[in-house]
Amino acid sequence: MKTNYYVINLDRSPERLAAIGADAATIGIDLIRVKAVDGKTVPPQAREILDESGFRRLHGKIPMDGEYGCYQSHIDVFDAFLASDADIAVIFEDDVRLTPALLPVLDRIVAVDDWDVVKLMHHRLPVFRAHRSIGGGHRLGTSLFGPTGSSAAYLVNRRGAKTLRQRLVPMQLPYDVALERGWALGVRVRHVKPDLVAGNPLTQQSLIGGRAKYSAMKLAPWRRLTTLLFRTAEVVRRARFGLIARTER
Questions:
Q1: Distance in angstroms (rounded) separating the CA atoms of residues 33 and 200
Q2: CATH of the domain at 169
């Protein structure tokens, strides 16, 4: 099977590209750069994939420029992958650190057809159900609680990419939240524990926005009642999805 390795990178962040490029060269992979969408340069009326009313209803806040740019950038990677002859895409944001342990574990993941999307990095993974060992102390499984956060590193097969490209539009949630919703998207989402990819401390400062900016985008509490209902239902859906997922050993 042919694997393409993609990195999403803004034109104004050459230092990030240089850092991850050096890591890739060390472990012997060629990165395909996909130009990141700079949300600051896309006026609201041109954000064709964004359903802002849906975003406010489900996420309880006003979408930030960086959130739109991130979402559109990942959709662009799917387009590039599906236009290629590769069977698998490994997708990185440019602020991660690649290590030699990556490739052997990826080989063990793809050896079994029990996944469509595999998240390699998380902000949190508190309730994890292991399905199988993938070597190096890593396990593949499902998450019973979340969102787990981060879309900085994951792999996807062609079936998964085709489905995600269709069902992730329109944008109604931040990309990292939307990506792992296998129960809603119809894809087999899996997680690696412990994380297979780490953040690069030299380049990890967020380009989307800090906590203060994020908090400022929240709607008034009474306008977030639909968000509360949605998130409550998601807890149940996620747990059920994680428990009934087919296990391959």
A1: 18
A2: 3.90.550
